[in-house]
Amino acid sequence: MICPECGSEYREDIVTCVDCNVRLVDESGSDSPPQLVALAETRSTDLLAEVVDRLEKANVPYVIQAGTALALLDRSDRGADLPDPWEARIWVAGPLLERAARVLAQAQGAVRESHDDAAG
């Protein structure tokens, strides 16, 4: 098993890199795609735009789910009552989660700073 971030090699029974905290991949070069993991959920269009821009610049692939029915994806027993407030969910490839989390933190800081400047 190999860490896709740092390249460290591990025994077959180890599944996560202790340094990068990312899921290890099979060193046989398996072509199976990495699993998507949720990076964040937000109702802020400002934050969504900032994160997407920064993920693009950091070369981190992502998927966005957005709308007023995301809860339907999570709760199959829910009826078709009033829509939930709009929100977006950002997904990234599991091996890039740590890098994406740093991008998210930077984007959150930038949006906070922008809102503070507008308020002040």
The percent of residues in helical segments reads 25-40%
Order of helices and strands: EHEHEH
Proportion of residues in extended strands: 15-25%
CATH fold node name of the largest domain: Alpha-Beta Plaits
CATH class annotation of the largest domain? Alpha Beta
What's the N-to-C terminus distance? 52 Å
Main beta sheet: 3 strands, antiparallel
Rg, rounded, reads 18 Å
Backbone structural class:
alpha+beta
Question: Any idea what the CATH superfamily of the largest domain is called?
Answer: UreE, C-terminal domain
| Number of distinct helices | 3
Question: What spatial order of strands do you see in the largest sheet?
Answer: 1-3-2
Count structural domains.
2
Low-confidence stretches: none
The CATH architecture of the largest domain? 2-Layer Sandwich
Q: In one word, what is the shape?
A: flat
What's the mean pLDDT score? 86
Number of E strands: 3
Write out key terms for the chains shown:
single chain, 120 residues, alpha+beta, Alpha-Beta Plaits, three-stranded antiparallel beta sheet, 3 helices, flat
What does this structure look like?
The protein is an alpha+beta fold and 120 residues long. The protein has 2 domains: 1-32, no CATH class; 36-119, 2-Layer Sandwich (Alpha-Beta Plaits). The protein is 34% helix and 17% strand. It has 3 helices and 3 strands. The chain has helices spanning 45-57, 70-74, 97-119, and strands spanning 36-42, 62-67, 87-93. The chain has a 3-stranded antiparallel sheet, with helices on one face. Helix 1 crosses helix 3 (97-119). The longest helix has 23 residues, at 97-119. The radius of gyration is 18 Å and the shape is flat. The N and C termini lie far apart (52 Å).
